[in-house]
Amino acid sequence: MALNTACYAYQPVPHPLVAANQRVRVHLTPDGTTELARYLGPQVGVAEGVVASVAADGAVALGVQWVRTTNGIRQAWAGEGTVTVPAAYIGRVEENTLDRRRSAFAAVAIGAAVIGVAVAALGIGGADGGPGSGGGGPNP
């Protein structure tokens, strides 16, 4: 259950340390927004997805899943395959990592809710039958 309730957050990561299979947000430079418009769409300032590979020159091949325009609109990316973002067009990179504090809080909250439901269910049904509960001995 803790894995299903885990909370993730994007944290800055130094660009050269990005590795394959990491879920990242790549923030483009203004030149990157202009130059990559033919691949990502007009006015895209952020591309989100999974790193396919990182070249020796720092270019990141990204399996894009979401894009965010410069005016803040986030939308699913309609393209296919990967987009290679040259290092010169990368402003910063953020990695999607487990936020331990939020995950622990969520796990405790869900655990408390489950216990509350269980206590309420046991309290309502009762353990001892009352009048009209269908209990009692055989008819004489």
Question: How would you explain this protein's 3D organization?
Answer:
By secondary structure, the protein is α+β, with helices and mostly antiparallel strands. It has a domain at 8-98: SH3 type barrels, CATH 2.30.30. Helix content is 26%, strand content 34%. It has three helices and seven strands. It has helices spanning 30-35, 37-40, 100-125; strands spanning 8-13, 23-28, 44-54, 60-69, 74-76, 83-85, 90-98. Strands 1, 2, 3, 4, 5, 6 and 7 form a seven-stranded antiparallel sheet that branches. Strand 3 and strand 4 (60-69) form a beta hairpin. The chain is elongated and about 90 Å long.
Q: Outline, from the CA principal axes?
A: elongated
Name the helix and strand elements from N-terminus to C-terminus, one letter apiece: EEHHEEEEEH
* Average pLDDT score: 80
Number of helices: 3
Descriptive tags:
7-stranded antiparallel β-sheet, 140 residues, 26% helix, SH3 type barrels, single chain, alpha+beta
